[in-house]
Structures are given as structure tokens and as C-alpha cells.
Design goal:
Blueprint (H helix, E strand, L loop, with lengths): L7 H18 L2 E5 L2 E5 L9 E2 L35 H11 L8 H73 L7 H17 L9
Antiparallel strand pairs: 1-2, 1-3
Length: 210
């Protein structure tokens, strides 16, 4: 049997039909999470265009800087920690700095539970020791303050007594100075010794004698 002949127009039409999907497969530019890409299928999201329809693909926007949370502040160690065992003091530090080290809340909760199970009694004893020490320090400080107050009071009493004695000695010196002319030589000698004693003990009250 003679083979059917294909005319030139029919052959061109057949080739165009076969090549049409291949041409269409390269005409879609799509945007994905990692930037633009090309597909032989329609884009699964809106925004796809045919290749070359609008020129080169626009540049992807620069990535946003990642948000970094500021580290949580770490407070000072409690005073009673120095009275705790080495293990519990270390666990106390780990629990206190957990947030600043970026541990998640679940891990922090586990640390807190473990700390209370293992170190609750140790912490209670440490708090009691600190309280007793503070009480002793307070008592010692009060005792020192009382001693200082008593010393000040003794000085004030002594100063008052000395002022009274000096006042009396000045009165005697003034009285005997007026009677020098009637004194015997022995009485005058005694008066001069008394007057010298007054001058040494009460320099601020010393008065000129004839």
C-alpha cells in the first residue's frame, strides 16, 4: 500500500502542536519562599508572570534582621547562700541565672523543682544561721552603743564634778586673798600651796592673786 504523504503545512502544524507544551513550560516565573523560580506549570501562588513579559525579575527584599531578646538581668546571690552546701549553692546559682542563660520556661521549672526537692532543708538551715548571726551582730552593736553612751555620761559627770570643785576652790582663793593681811606666815604658805594647786587643776578659772 502506498504511504500517505504529509504536506508541508500539516507537518509544521504537527511540530508546533508538539512543541507548544515545552514552550509554555518555560514561560512561568514564580515567587517562592527562597526567591523567584521558573516552572512549566502555572504558579501555585499569585504573582507569577510569563517569562520576559515585564523584563528582569525584581530583586528580593533584604532579609529582616532577626529579633534578639535582651538577656534577663541577674540579681545578686542571696546572703544566706554562703551558709549552704557547695552542691546546693551551685544549684541556687544555676536557678538564679537560668533566664539570663536562655533556658526555656519548662527547663527552668524542672530546675526549680529539683532545687526544692534537694535543697529546701539546706536553704532553711542557711537562713536560720544568717538570722542568728544578724541577731548576734545586732546585740554586739547595741552593747557597744550602750558602752559608748555610758562612757560619755561618765565624762560628763566627771566634767561637772570637776567644774564644781574648781568653783569651790576659786571661792576659797578669793576669800583667803582678802584676808592675807591677817594671816600668819604658816597660813600664807598653806594658802600659796592651795593657790598653786588650784592653778594647775583649774587653769580656765585661775584668777590673779595679789
Amino acid at each position: 500500500m502506498p504511504r500517505p504523504r504529509c504536506t508541508a503545512p500539516a507537518l509544521v502544524l504537527a511540530l508546533a502542536t508538539l512543541l507548544a507544551p515545552a514552550v509554555q513550560a518555560q514561560t512561568h516565573r514564580c515567587m517562592g519562599v527562597n526567591g523567584p523560580y521558573y516552572s512549566d506549570r502555572p504558579c501555585p501562588i499569585q504573582g507569577g508572570t510569563k517569562l520576559g513579559a515585564y523584563g528582569p525579575a525584581p530583586e528580593a527584599p533584604p532579609p529582616r534582621p532577626g529579633y534578639q531578646r535582651a538577656p534577663a538581668p541577674v540579681g545578686p546571690a542571696p546572703e544566706y547562700q554562703s551558709y549552704m552546701s557547695a552542691e546546693c549553692a551551685s544549684l541556687n546559682d544555676g536557678l538564679r541565672t537560668a533566664a539570663s542563660r536562655g533556658l526555656n520556661p519548662i527547663t527552668q521549672q524542672d530546675l526549680r523543682r529539683d532545687y526544692h526537692q534537694r535543697c529546701a532543708d539546706d536553704e532553711a538551715r542557711a537562713r536560720q544561721k544568717l538570722s542568728r548571726e544578724r541577731s548576734l551582730d545586732r546585740q554586739a552593736r547595741l552593747a557597744e552603743e550602750r558602752q559608748a553612751e555610758q562612757a560619755v555620761q561618765r565624762v560628763q559627770v566627771q566634767q561637772q564634778r570637776s567644774a564644781e570643785q574648781c568653783g569651790e576652790m576659786r571661792r576659797i582663793v578669793a576669800s583667803k586673798t582678802q584676808r592675807l593681811g591677817t594671816m600668819t606666815p604658816g597660813e600664807v604658805a598653806d594658802f600659796r600651796r592651795f593657790e598653786q594647786n588650784f592653778a594647775e587643776r583649774c587653769p580656765s578659772m585661775r584668777q590673779a592673786t595679789p
